[in-house]
Specification:
2 domains, binds phosphoric acid mono(formamide)ester, 313 residues, binds norvaline
């Protein structure tokens, strides 16, 4: 389906944003069109106060620069209020259940909750008991807001999504999982090159294959051939233990200028950030002319606001 032919309704059926697995292509397009509209208004300094009188809780169990700042500022821009809750300062850290926390937070009039650093299972459990929208701000299984922002960025820069090819090089982590689901649903081919033992989970790959072309390989050249986008992420994620053996196996999976040369001439380089220059990407690439990483990061603001506008009722 071609996003440019889609007519947005600025409405979605889903009540939460837990992962891209639950979203249809049309719903992904709704998020992207809403982000485009948010960005247009932001550029002219116009903000609609759609969160006036509403409070969003940000319940975070790990550090963050982009997710936290883009939510806090985005909520303010929409006229709303937020409560930042580090998990270790809540009773969750002393064993209070997810059910009790989820049920209770809505009783105070909170309108939505962003969870960060929980496991995929905990995010789903939270949503099961929550009467207000739950938004996944990163879990060990996925990072849906990041990949929505990435798809929005590709749409802006390439003018379309369908029939493009994205190559992801590196660890088969939360970002790789969300890219598989997001890209396959919008008809973008995805090829993942990871060393043996670090490919994305088989269940995700099989799910993605039901919607689009997903190639899993250990060969960087095969993945990057004819790619319009080359993407990478850190070798060690926040939900991982530091692991020297893993880093050693991944060391060859760095996006260098030589790797970029194997992609299409007009290919762009993407990274969800934070990045480690000299590990998963060379400084020449991330700081070079093909890099669009700051556009991706900026677009987190517009996607977060779009998500709140679509989900908070
Ligand atoms: N990409 C991303 O989620 O960034 P932060 O970890 O800084 O929030
Ligand atoms: N895979 C990384 C993404 C950070 C935005 C992590 O989970 O730490």
């Amino acid at each position: 389906m071609d996003i440019n032919k889609y007519v947005p309704k600025f409405k979605i059926r889903t009540e939460n944003l837990l992962s891209l697995t639950e979203l249809s292509a049309e719903e992904i397009f709704e998020f992207l069109y809403a982000a485009r509209s948010m960005k247009k208004r932001f550029r002219v300094g116009e903000h609609s106060p759609m969160l006036k009188g509403k409070t969003v809780a940000l319940l975070f169990d790990n550090v963050s620069t982009r997710t936290r700042v883009s939510f806090e500022i985005g909520i303010r821009q929409l006229g709303g209020d937020f409560i930042f809750l580090p998990k270790n300062e809540t009773q969750l850290s002393r064993g209070e259940s997810i059910k009790d926390t989820a049920v209770m937070l809505a009783r105070y009039g909170i309108s939505a909750i962003v969870l960060r650093g929980f496991t995929g299972g905990q995010v789903r459990e939270f949503a099961q008991y929550s009467s207000i929208p739950v938004i996944n701000g990163i879990s060990d299984e996925g990072h849906p807001l990041q990949v929505l922002s990435d798809l929005f960025t590709v749409w802006e820069i390439k003018g379309r999504l369908d029939n493009l090819k994205i190559a992801y090089i590196g660890d088969g982590n939360n970002i790789a999982n969300s890219l598989i689901m997001g890209c396959s649903k919008v008809n973008m081919d995805i090829a993942i090159a990871s060393p043996n033992g670090y490919s994305p989970a088989k269940s995700i790959v099989e799910r993605g294959m039901q919607f689009g072309n997903v190639l899993i390989t250990d060969d960087i050249a095969e993945a990057v051939k004819d790619a319009d986008v080359v993407y990478t992420d850190v070798f060690i994620s926040m939900s991982d233990e530091d692991d020297e053996a893993k880093k050693k196996k991944l060391a060859r999976y760095r996006v260098t200028p030589e790797v970029m040369k194997l992609a299409k001439e007009d290919a762009v380089f993407m990274h969800c950030m934070p990045a480690h220059r000299g590990e998963e990407v060379s400084a020449e690439v991330i700081d070079g002319p093909q890099s669009i990483v700051y556009d991706q990061a900026e677009n987190r603001l517009h996607i977060n606001k779009a998500a709140l506008a679509l989900l908070v009722r």
